[in-house]
# Entry
Amino acid sequence: MGTNSSAVAEATLGLTSAPVDPLRYDGHTADESESTGIICRFVPDGARVLDVGCGTGSMSKLVRDLRHATVIGIEPNPERAGLARQRGIDVHVGVLNAQTSATLGDFDAVVFADVLEHLEDPAATLRTARSVLRRGGVVVASVPNVAHWTVRWNLLLGRFDYQPVGIMDATHLRWFTRRSIHSLFGAAGFTVQTYTVSAGMWMPEYNTRAPWRWMAPDSRNRAIIAGVRRWPGLFGCQHVVRATVSGQ
# Structure
């Protein structure tokens, strides 16, 4: 999460061939195979939800509408926050910390939709999230799977190339395996209740790499989903978890 577009562009100089678009993550759907659909399923119905790093509000709107939730967003980028407000989301411009959390109230769920990987200290932010959770509340999060077959293949070829979007997004500071995401939540005082992976059928590599690019879209998507079910650690694009405060 950057504070503004120019800061993000500066941070990615030399990592990508062109500056990353601060509005690149938008247009989310409720596809049950993808992270946004899974997150919606993991959020309790009728919950009061804090969407941390809510971006343009695309995800927030899905949670609000599909889960009959009251959603409060917090977003450091004013441009993205403005778009979220246009979607009817109550957004606070800033980051989640001890100061801002004291002004937000209590929540049944805190959502980190592809946010923790952008943070220098994700465990500290998760601990802050504990302070705004009601008893029995949940944290729902998605993070990139660094063990995805695309990353493994590139490493075999000696490549670790950043991209404008996706697992190798040039603004990511952290990547996760199944074991490390469980370890992160445990260190922050949470117990992972539910774990799954997303399919990532939207990933650009499926349109550019053989044999995927030769397949009809429907056949390709069925093959990807079958791969996710059989080898989640290899084909899962994102780890998605629902966690509660340990001991509750």
In short: DSSP finds eleven helices and seven strands in the chain. The mean pLDDT is 93. The domain at 5-245 is CATH 3.40.50.150 (Rossmann fold). The beta strands are 48-52, 70-75, 90-93, 107-113, 133-144, 190-197, 238-245.
